[in-house]
Every structure is written in structure tokens, then in C-alpha cells.
Amino acid sequence: MNADVAVENTPGTFLWNDPGVPVTKRVDALIGAMTLQEKTAQLYGVWVGASDQGGEVAPHQHDMEEIVDLDALLPTGLGQLTRPFGTVPVDPALGALSLARTQTRIAATNRFGIPALAHDECLAGFAAWGATAYPVPLSWGATFDPDVVRRMAAAIGRDMRAVGVHQGLAPVLDVVRDARWGRVEETIGEDPYLVGTIGTAYVQGLESAGIVATLKHFAGYSASRAGRNLAPSSVGPRERADVLLPPFEMAIREGGARSVMNAYTDTDGIPSAADEDLLTGLLRDTWGFDGTVVADYFAVAFLKTLHGVAADWAGAAGTALHAGIDVELPNVKTYGTPLTEAVADGRVPEALVDRALRRILTQKVLLGLLDPDWNPLPAALHGADPDAPAALRGRIDLDGPENRALARTIAEEAVVLLSNDGTLPLARPRRIALLGPNADEPVAVLGCYSFPQHIGVRHPGTPHGIELPTLRDALAAEFPDAEITVARGTGVDDGDLSGIHEAARVAREADIALVALGDRAGLFGRGTSGEGCDVGTLALPGAQQHLLDTLIDLETPLITVLLAGRPYALGRAVRESAAIVQSFFPGEEGTHAIAGVLSGRTNPSGRLPVSVPSGPGSQPSTYLGARLAHASDVSSIDPTPAFAFGHGLSYTRFDWTDLSVDAHEAPTDGEFTLSFSVRNTGGRSGTEVVQVYLHDPVASVVQPVQRLIGYARVELAPDEARRLRVTVPADLASFTGRDGRRVVEPGALEVRLAASSTDPRLTARVTLTGTARHVDHTRRLHATVGQEPVTPA
């Protein structure tokens, strides 16, 4: 203990426990009183699983780590508890009791009474048994609706707080660069502005519930070569700055995120976990981030085992700590004994330990974990008898009616109608053939970070914990008078052709045929989509294309329905299927959402957050390509998508008219304002998604042909019109120039008002005047889109 630091407040109390003392003073006093071992103990976590009997948590045995001895660790303290609910199936109330008992033990065992910070996954809902499974992030992007995503995240956060969790490992802000990457389902889309705005809304919602949001993966993970998981990234500094970093910048500046997780990848030979310029220079010194940086699981150890930039565990710890990683997750490996020994012998400065410790303790103080009235037992269990755990079972509901209603709203907004020859919405078909591997599969709506697919698959026989109606169930409810006949045809990826003849027979005898295709989410090769489930091409998995082509050849009208984690090339179906309905793992209410679109109960309003390719081998490709990335006469590969970013059809029609521009010129520090009208000219209510793109025809460095800078959902009744007023700051024309600084250059621009990236409806040609102007992270980030009713003539 440092004798120069005053730690006592009044006799018998300490400064760090007094909420009336400034946070910095509380933290200073605590750091000054701690030994080196007590300091480093706050810098790592232990992976545990809560007890389904309400007893203390048990360390999780992971195949990449040795078992942890909690009895040996706890006397010096513990920084984090890793995934107490996302490791084994456990009733939420009993899990909360288990976590509370463990927290009581942790606080009582160390000298300072410091509990651990508990974190869990919450990518598409709290990844706990019995918690609501919301649509995956790719579906959030398809909604183009930050408000509904913000509400969802707040609900997720409330559920996490209800059981004693403090930190959520979401959102994923990686921008899709290659759809072959398995983790596409976890992303929000291929455009940085869409990713940034939707991701920021998620952060705002989660943080509003008191949960620490963790941005991941910082930075470049999605740009790995050939779409392979945990592979090197080849991006240059300009692509990194203009495509990959803006969503993180926005979520920190506008979302208030309190944590960041590093990426596994290396960029030009520098692993993210060892990148001081990224984790300290940019993140903290430039952007002003003052939260914690946590390691992606095993990332610190990977500096030795995978990247080869450290010779031993101590070297890995020192390298990561110096770069700016504060917390080692999921278990103690390098930040324990190897780090303390390296500090003791002078290889690692203790000041680096103190720097990370200060951030961690500040967060714990702000969470109230050191306050004298801290209580590890969540409010839902107050007054309960902890010695009667059986009576607690079912006391905490993580999938209540409000959650399910919200999950359905998001799923409905996320369904994208890709094509339609007029067959949809369906009238009242008498005989429906429901075909394909996802026709009657409950988990076809779930992503790889849902509890049933992430954890439940390792516990066969355990119920899902939530209701998962299949597409068959949903269609039976939607069309109660129809005769529905199901034939699987083939599996998701087994290549089995033996059932295709039967599927064709069933289709011939029906009035309408629906084929449900797509993915099975899993981890590390156990699925066709998900972490470690990368693919070589974007052909439908297994024999699904064979099944699809066979059904197209029949006379029965065919509707193709996708329940998938990534976009796939659909071959002849693009032109010959009567309709195509795309959903990206739409969650527990997803099949009802799809059925509602098929029947017309719901007018589809989803828009593609990623392009659907024309062929299986045209990757990597996104709409953000520069001119040379588009189709040309000098290459035999045509990357033009079958359905472009932002595309989506409706059951009504919208007319865009009367464009006016307040002024066609503005200085490089000014803005443009334009207005136009959108009218619903169809026969039913619907939602148009107005998208604003910027085209810069001449710039000092190569630019994408266009990029999204704003959007708005416009809900209109039949014959209703709204006047939209769009303000575009000149800052949105900025890009990283030749000198590495962000610049707004004078010159001509086009502001394209569009229904998709390939469907511009109105174009304003404007000019920036004056001299080039450099901007930084304080620049304006948004085009504002206001709406007002149009008074009938």
C-alpha cells in the first residue's frame, strides 16, 4: 500500500466506497492501496457458467484454455466474469441467483470488496436460455429504421440488467466487404453510413438501460482476404479510414459506447491487438474515447500463437497492454502471472498496468459496484428465499409479450420483397406446396449467436426455451383454409437429391408452391453461416439450387423464400421465380413476418443492406466500388448484382416529383438544401424508403461511384403525399486525401434521391465553391431529412 495516498474517508470507511467523493479521487485512492497482483487481477476475466440450481458459477472448460482455479485467484480479486448466462442453459432467475452468490463471494474474498463486471453476448438478443431471439443485425440493416433498433436494444439491456449482467458484447460494426465471410449475418450491411446509424442506435438503446455497449471488431475484421475468418486484411489506409472506421467513430461520438473490442486480424502486418496507433493514437488521443478496450477472446495470446509478434506470454501481455488493450478475455492467460513477473523484472512498466486499471476501476465505480449500498441480487429476486431455489424458477421472464411484439415488428420491417410478377400477395390458395430444407425447421430463423444455435446445440434434449414457430406453422395460421403439403426436397447442405422428385410431385398438385431455402447457422463449420462458416462461392449450399431449378421448370407458380445469413446467387430464379422473398435470420417471430408478407397482411418495406449477386463467383463486390470495380468491356467477370443495395419492392406505388434546390452552389464549409414530394399512388398504405446518395465525379483520389449519406422511412396512406426537405452539409463530401487528411474539395457533385443504389428518382446537380477545407472527427456526419404533409390541392 502506498503510504502517500490517503485512503480513509472517515474512520472505518474508505474513499473508494464513498459516492460523494469524485470518481477520479476514489480511483486514485484504490490504485494507491493495491499490490501489483491485486492490480493485474482486475485486468482479466474468468469464463464461467451459472448454476441451474442457484449455486455459485462454475469455471467453463474451454478447449483452448486450461481449467481455472477460482479459489486460488479470488483473494487478489477478479476483473470480469465471462458469459455466466451464455455458457450453459440455465433458468434466468436461478442464473441470477447463481451470479449474485458468486459476486458476493468475489467481493468478500478480496481486500477491497470489488465485485467482478459480468459480460455476455447480445448480438441478436441477450444470448441466454429463454431470452428473446430478435432478428440478426443484417435484418436490422434491412429495416433502415434506427428508432426500432434503439427500442430493441433498450429491451435487451433491461433484460440483461434484470439478471445482474453489466456489459454486452455488441454491436458488430464491421462493414461487409466480401459476402463469403461467415460472419456477414452479424453485420448490419455493406455501407458504412447504414452500419454507423443503425449501430449507433443500438448503442444508444443498450446504454440507456445501463449496459456497457462493446463495439466490435476494431478494426478491419470484415475485410479479410478471400472472406476467410481470422485472416489477414489487405485494406489500405484510405479504405480503412473512409469505409471501415466511420461506424466506430459515429458510435463513440453519438452513441456513447463505453467499450471497444479489438479485431483478430492483422492489417499490413500489424495485428489489431498490437496496434498502438489504432487503439491509443486514433481511438483515445484523436477521438477522445475514455472507456475500456477489451480483447476479443484469446486475442492477446494469439499475438504469440497466431501472429508471431511475441515470443512468450509475457511478451504478448506487454505488447497488448502497450497498444491499449485493458482487459484480457475470456480467461486469464497472459495478464496474470506472466504480466506480474514481467512488471517485476522491468520488462513491462507498471504505469501501463495502472493506465488500464484506472479505466477499469472508473467503469466499476460509475456502475455503482463500489458503492456501500451495492447489492448483487437483482430487483426481481428481492424478498425471495435464496435457500428455496425451486420456488424461483420462472420468476424472471426474458421473453415477455412486449419483447415478442417488438421482435415481430423488426422482422416485418426487415423482410425484403426482391421480385414479384403479381403473384404476391397471395389470394386464398386452396392447395399450398411448402418445400425445401427450411420449410419446417424451427431454428431456420436463428443466427449463430442465438442461444439455441450457439450453446443449445451442445446440450441435446434441452428445450429451446422460446417458441420457434416454423414456416409451416406460420402459413397454417395465415391461411387456415388452405391444405398445406410439406416436402423437404433436400437438406441445407447435405447434397441429397433423393427427395427432389417427391418435392416436384407435391408442387405439381398445388395451386402455389413455396420453396424455403437458405442457411443453417452454426460455429466453425457446424453451419453454412456464422463465425468460421466461410464459403468459397455464393452458390446456394448443398443441392438447393438443383431443387430450385427443378421447381422452376414446373407449371405451378413458384415463390422463393430465403431464410439466410448472407445473400446468395439465385440463378434462374431471379428471372423465372414468380416472386422472391428475402429474410436474414428474422428471429423467433420471423416466420409470422414472412407469412404476413405472403398474404398481404403486411406491406413489405425492407430494403437490401447487402447486394444480391448475379453469379456465385463475383466476390468480393459491394455497391461502393469505384468505376474500375464495375462492369467493363475488358473483363469477362461482370460484378453487377442481381438485386442492388437498397432494393426492395412494395405492394403499392410511389411517385417522386417536384425537386427544388434552394441554391446550386455552396462553399466547402456550407450546405445544400433540396426538397421534393413523395406520393403513394397505389391502392394501399405503404412505406417508401428514401435514400440519399452522393456522387463525386472528379476528386483528387479515386472515389466510389456513389455512397449513402442519408435515408428516411416515409409512411403513406393511399394518395397521401409528403414533402421531404433534405439538408446535405458539405462535410459529407469529405474523404481521405492524398496526404492522409480528410478533405472537402471544391467542384461539382450530384445528390441522388433514390429508391435503391441503382434506382435514382431525382438528381440535384450542385457545386462546392472556394478552397479545399480539411475536416476532422468533429465534422458533421448526417444529412437531415425532414417530412411534412402535402396539403391536397
TrEMBL record:
It comes from the Bacteria. Pfam families: Fn3-like, Glyco_hydro_3, Glyco_hydro_3_C. One of its GO terms (molecular function) is hydrolase activity, hydrolyzing O-glycosyl compounds. SMART domains: Fn3_like. One of its GO terms (biological process) is carbohydrate metabolic process. InterPro entries: Cellulose_deg_GH3, Fn3-like, GH, Glyco_hydro_3_C, Glyco_hydro_3_C_sf, Glyco_hydro_3_N, Glyco_hydro_3_N_sf, Ig-like_fold. Residues 688-757 form the Fibronectin type III-like domain. Keywords: Hydrolase. Belongs to the glycosyl hydrolase 3 family. This is Glycosyl hydrolase. It comes from Streptomyces apricus.
